[in-house]
Design brief:
460 residues, alpha+beta, Uridine Diphospho-n-acetylenolpyruvylglucosamine Reductase, domain 2, Alpha-Beta Plaits, five-stranded antiparallel sheet, binds D-malate, binds zinc ion
Length: 460
């Protein structure tokens, strides 16, 4: 029996896909830099099947690319070299809710928004949130330690994973931390798996910590006269308001969103905008918000602002920020997803602005991001007339300079999108030789046959 026939026997003919359209669909993520070319797609429905697939891959020396909602932006879920894509879309059951633990246990293929909705049904909140909530899956979120729009208040995915079941590259099942709040029994392998981008194990199940939702979230959109004012505004607002989110984008970004519909939020254009959300705890918070707004206006940190008067209007304001990624997707953007400590952002922003103006005078550069937690997305759009190869070359050159600036500020080349293929050439610029050597050894421990997402994050 050939390898694929064996796989079909393990699963079923319906759950091993080899049609060209399927290979293309499942072989890539939201990046468009690599041509998908997997050998086949497997759709397991249980942990036992995932283990069987790993044993099959070991026996046939086939690499596995784990696949969630494929909304990744660094090529971590791209299969371009005859790999087997293991899609978790059929492992989408919510397995249980525990009111005392306040946890939700889910299979890896549950869509982020379904997790959020399930938490809401119990009067609680799964607080990790981002634009791709409707398609991304929890397994992928954990594999990349996804961040998003409320990190300033709730932290990254890592903070919400209370337990994790993972299949290693040997096919063993690890049941990590089992939902415990306190567990002082040595190395916490759960945290090693979070953010490992499918290179150490296949995440098959997670127990997620839930929390109380913030009361009465209020959304404001503010017109800010200069990049330099954004962080001063953060200081002022954070002192006075319990912020849930503090996001920023430029007018260039807004124009792209508006090209897909919607009305300008303010009469006059402004170089940048801040969208903030805060928890309206009581009448005191309302007064504080008004005072903060007036003070910021007096200090010249904003020129205009609007406060959402309804949930519908809040969603409209959020659309200006969350619509950016989709609105620029057609331009094959090269995405920089960088972070520095919040205290370094003002200096870093100024340095970046100068670098991009000097190096990319002819390219359109779209700035936005989660500036409240030190994470900036700087997307460079491909000029129509330029070939993909020339564009890639130009972007690589500037990323090199960017790494110099990041190294000076102790920053990171990937804040929340992961390293995948896109940022792999730059890993050594932000992680030490000793760290990378240890990462390689760890890879070998968990994946001795080298079958788990090889070539992603690290070279073999
Ligand atoms: C976002 O913040 O919108 C996402 O990280 C996606 C992106 O950077 O395009
Ligand atoms: Zn982001």
């Amino acid at each position: 029996m050939d390898a694929i026939a064996e796989l079909v026997a393990l699963l079923s003919p319906k759950r091993v896909l080899t049609a060209a359209a399927d290979l293309e669909h499942y072989g890539r993520d939201w990046t468009r830099w690599w041509t998908p070319a997997p050998r086949a797609i497997a759709l397991p429905e249980s942990i036992a099947e995932v283990q069987a697939i790993v044993h099959w891959a070991i026996a046939h020396h086939v690499a596995i690319v784990p696949s969630g909602g494929r909304t990744g932006l660094s090529g971590g879920a791209v299969a371009a070299h005859g790999e087997l894509v293991v899609s978790f879309e059929r492992m989408h059951r919510i397995l249980g809710f525990d009111p005392l633990d306040r946890t939700l246990t889910v299979e890896a293929g549950v869509v982020t928004e379904a997790v959020q909705n399930a938490a809401r049904e119990h009067g609680l909140m799964y607080p990790v949130d981002f634009g791709s909530r409707g398609s991304s899956q929890i397994g992928g979120n954990i594999a990349t330690n996804a961040g998003g729009i409320r990190v300033i208040r709730f932290g990254m995915t890592r903070a919400w994973v209370a337990g994790l079941k993972v299949v290693t590259g040997n096919g063993e099942l690890l049941d990590l931390n089992r939902g415990l709040v306190k567990n002082a029994t040595g190395y916490d392998l759960r945290h090693l798996m979070i953010g490992s981008e499918g290179t150490l194990g296949l995440i098959v199940e997670a127990t997620l910590q839930l929390t109380d939702p913030p009361r009465d979230p209020q959304v404001m959109l503010l017109a800010v006269p200069a990049l330099a004012a954004v962080m001063q505004l953060l200081t002022l607002m954070r002192e006075r308001l319990p912020l849930n989110a503090f996001e920023f984008f430029t007018d260039v970004a807004l124009k792209h969103v508006l090209a897909h519909g919607g009305k300008r939020p303010f009469e006059a254009e402004s170089p940048c905008y801040v969208l903030l959300e805060y928890e309206n705890r009581d009448a005191g918070t309302e007064t504080a918000a008004l005072e903060a707004f007036e003070q910021a206006m007096q200090q010249g940190l904003l020129t205009d602002g609007v406060m959402a008067q309804s949930e519908v209007q809040a969603r409209e304001l959020w659309r200006f920020r969350e619509g950016i990624t989709e609105s620029i997707a057609q331009y094959t953007p090269y995405k920089n997803d960088v972070s520095v400590r919040v205290s370094k952002v003002p200096e870093f922003l100024a340095g970046m602005d100068a670098l991009f103006a000097r190096e990319y005078p002819d390219f359109e550069v779209v700035w936005f991001g989660h500036v409240g937690d030190g994470n900036l997305h700087i997307s460079v759009l491909k000029p129509e007339a330029m070939t993909k190869a020339d564009f890639e070359l130009a972007c690589g050159r500037v990323t090199d300079h960017l790494c110099d600036v990041l190294a000076r500020h102790g920053g990171s080349i990937s804040a929340e999108h992961g390293v995948g293929l896109l940022k792999k050439p730059y890993l050594s610029r932000v992680r030490s030789v000793a760290e990378i050597a240890l990462m390689r050894q760890l890879k070998h421990v968990f994946d001795p046959h080298g079958i788990l997402n090889p070539g992603k994050l690290l070279d073999a």
